[in-house]
Design goal:
GO terms for molecular function: aminoacyl-tRNA deacylase activity; ATP binding; proline-tRNA ligase activity. The protein is an alpha+beta fold and about 700 residues long. Helix content is about 30%, strand content about 25%. It binds ligand 87F. Ligand 87F binds next to helix 10, strand 19 and strand 22.
Length: about 700
């Protein structure tokens, strides 16, 4: 780096320069905030936009700096409006950021264009959304400081002084003028879907996932970003999860209920610590018809503050406890991270359970019982292995005392995925909401509470674990059709007789309580049907052709391992057992794949090596929050993950965070050190990049 070319070396220089240009700013100093997700946690003045800064580069090394509102989903089509091709654009790498801006990843900002002495940044693209805000939150060169300045000052004082060009433009595809073109593409896509097999291998993971969920007819796209249609094939899976989990919690005397989805602002704000980090995600209803509501209503992002005022009324004496309720609902959280169907969506389905107890011991026991149920849902239904653990202080639900979790690891990319959480809330909420009772000694006491949730994300984990190059592979217990019967019509076969046989077999299987479908459509070939039901992941296909008809047999083809064999009609009662075997084999295979993604490390070098090989890492740890934060920051900076951009969106940061401290773990002895800071280790913790 040639320092002579740097005009704005650091934040001091930058702030001085702003003052020199007569620009007013409000300044905030803080810890490094390398990603937009970190930035939004810093409190700004009302009416200030959090700006994400993206540096793109084309094949001819022209650079484009995009300043977008943090909630804007930056699409692709706006490049066309600029006369450019999105296919040529790549998010710039570390070296390129250094070349153009003399800056680094996590430190891209418009002030750094002052250092672009070779005039590499050809254009600055400003999100039209930003014109709606009073001020913009931007880093003056370094991400340990944020200034709030007006867009007008940025354009007409700062960029003007540097003689830099900029364009203000709509960055979202939905609103762009090319909407029609996009629609056409979608239509073409739709036609492809109907005719072609899966064209992408699982090794091309995120593309593969997008294709599988559509070809398996789980998901249809919808024109509100982050929201998806769950088609019957997917909704059936959710119903199976509901049935299974409902049966489990019924034994625990949990009762199903329904609470309203709207909540008043004053209730949402009541429990500050719990809601502060989440505020930006709350969606509001502000109008009815043409009129404004007097008081806007929040749409439930979770129901603590909706339920607990009622709990306070219902709990009077120790005889009213335990109180245990659950509800199956939708939830809205207006996330701005890139959405992924099932995994991260703005509206999702879940169950949320809330209990209140007279003793701490009872509440703690409840937390772990539910955690075991979650493990069972994943293992017994979805054949997905999970790791039970406790969240660290910084990752726990801030409103509670401790958070337990079931975590899984997606084998393809080694990313951690939180499967469900069960919280011990202590007395935090009961004190806030006056949920108290007279104990058996006539003393007033606050209830001990728990809450726990499992979402449709679990379906995403299942798809990712079991799917293969041919499409979805369903574990038998959640498959809408466990068995599909396909007649193989042949020129010298009596079609009527074949059909009768198929129907007869179908009835036999229904009697065994199997979910079976006979695909006797005559406008599709057997080959087409094989392909179709393979894509949809049906665990077993029964083929019945001339040979089978004659020999009173069926041909069995197992989806998950493609095993093929004949069985006699009188042996069809084995199918239940065969399906169980398939479940077990899928689960065992998944366990091996998960375990291969867990590595140990004793020092930083080993840690980063494992992380960059897409593994999670189990380490000895001191349990200090400061150490945790340092690992997060450092691993982000040193990350070499190439997979972190999708559609030009920085999908995930490359930094590793703690997934959980596994419940099952070896004892740590005196003198054993934290892998990172060399202080006395307390427990093992699992680190990883995560969804
Ligand atoms: C988003 C907006 C507002 C998560 C939010 O995990 C509030 C929240 O409280 C919020 N996102 N959370 C934490 C939810 C905690 C807890 N609630 C019951 C669960 C399980 C079910």
């Amino acid at each position: 780096m040639d320092n002579n070319n740097i005009l704005l070396q650091n934040k001091q220089a930058c702030l001085e320069y702003l003052t020199k240009l007569g620009i007013n700013y409000i300044v905030h100093h803080h810890d490094p905030v390398p990603t937009i997700n970190d930035v939004v946690k810093i409190q700004m003045t009302d009416g200030t936009a959090y700006v994400k800064n993206l540096l793109y580069v084309d094949k001819k090394s022209n650079y484009y700096l995009i300043l977008a509102n943090h909630t804007t989903q930056v699409g692709k089509l706006f490049w066309k409006t600029l006369g450019l091709s999105s296919g040529n654009m790549r998010l710039s790498k570390e070296e390129q950021i250094s070349e153009a801006l003399k800056s680094s990843k996590g430190n891209v900002n418009p002030f750094a264009v002052a250092n672009d002495s070779n005039n590499l940044v050809k254009n600055i693209i400003i999100d039209e959304e930003l014109t709606k805000f009073k001020k913009l939150a931007l880093h003056p060169i370094e991400n340990t400081t944020t200034v709030e300045i007006s867009l007008d000052d940025l354009q007409n004082k700062f960029l003007k002084a540097l003689n830099k060009q900029y364009t203000v433009i709509q960055l979202t595809d939905e609103a762009s003028e090319q909407q029609l073109e996009y629609q056409k593409e979608l239509q073409k896509d739709q036609q492809n879907l109907q005719t072609l097999a899966i064209t992408i291998k699982k090794s091309d993971f995120s593309e593969w996932y997008q294709q599988v969920i559509r070809k398996a007819e789980l998901i249809e796209y919808y024109d509100v970003s982050g929201c998806y249609i769950l088609r019957p094939w997917a909704y059936f899976i959710w119903e199976q999860i509901q049935r299974y989990f409902d049966d489990l919690i019924r034994i625990e005397d949990v009762e199903n209920t329904y609470f309203p989805m709207f909540l008043q602002a004053k209730h949402l704000n009541k429990e500050k610590t719990h809601v502060d980090g989440f505020k930006a995600e709350v969606a509001w209803v502000t109008k009815y018809g043409e009129s404004d509501l007097n008081e806007p209503l929040a749409i439930r992002p979770t129901s603590e503050t909706i339920m607990y005022p009622a709990f306070a009324k219902w709990v009077q004496s120790h005889r009213d406890l335990p109180l245990k309720v659950n509800q199956w609902t939708n939830i809205v959280r207006w996330e701005f991270k890139y959405p992924t169907p099932f995994i991260r969506t703005r509206e999702f389905l879940w169950q949320e359970g809330h209990t209140a107890h007279s003793t701490k011991e009872e509440a703690v026991k409840q937390v772990y019982t539910i955690l075991d149920f979650y493990e069972q849902v994943y293992g017994e239904l979805l054949a997905v292995p999970v790791i039970k653990g406790i969240k660290t202080e910084s990752e726990k639900f801030a409103g509670g005392d401790f958070t337990t979790t079931v975590e899984t690891i997606i084998p393809q990319n080694g990313r951690g995925l939180q499967g469900a959480t069960s919280h011990h809330l202590g007395q935090n909420f009961s004190k806030m909401f006056e949920i108290n009772f007279e104990d058996d000694k006539k003393q007033k006491a606050y209830a001990w509470q728990t809450s726990w949730g499992l979402t449709t994300r679990s379906i995403g984990a299942m798809i990712m674990f079991h799917g293969d190059d041919k499409g979805l592979v369903l574990p038998p217990r959640i498959a809408k059709y466990q068995i599909v019967i396909i007649p193989i019509i042949h020129k010298d076969i009596d079609e009527k007789q074949l059909n009768e046989r198929c129907e007869q077999i179908k009835q036999m299987l229904i009697k065994q309580k199997l979910r079976v479908h006979l695909d006797n459509r005559d406008n599709y070939s057997p080959g087409w049907k094989f392909n179709k039901w393979e894509q949809k992941g049906v665990p077993i296909r029964l083929e019945i052709g001339p040979g089978e008809l004659k020999n009173n047999e069926v041909r069995v083809v197992q989806r998950f391992d493609n095993k093929k064999y004949q069985i006699k009609i009188e042996e069809l009662n084995q199918l239940n057992q065969i399906l169980d075997n398939i479940h077990n084999a899928m689960f065992e295979k998944a366990k091996i794949e998960l375990n291969q993604r867990i590595k140990q490390a004793d020092n930083w070098k080993e840690f980063m090596t494992q992380l960059n090989q897409r593994n999670t890492i189990l380490t000895k740890w001191c349990e200090r929050q400061q150490c945790e934060q340092q690992v997060k920051d450092k691993s982000g900076m040193e990350s070499k993950e190439k997979d972190s951009e999708i559609d030009g969106q920085v999908q995930l940061t490359g930094s590793a965070k703690t997934l959980c401290m596994p419940l099952k773990q070896d004892e740590i002895k005196d003198g054993e050190k934290c892998f990172h800071c060399d202080q006395q280790a307390k427990r093992y913790v699992l680190w990883g990049r995560s969804y």
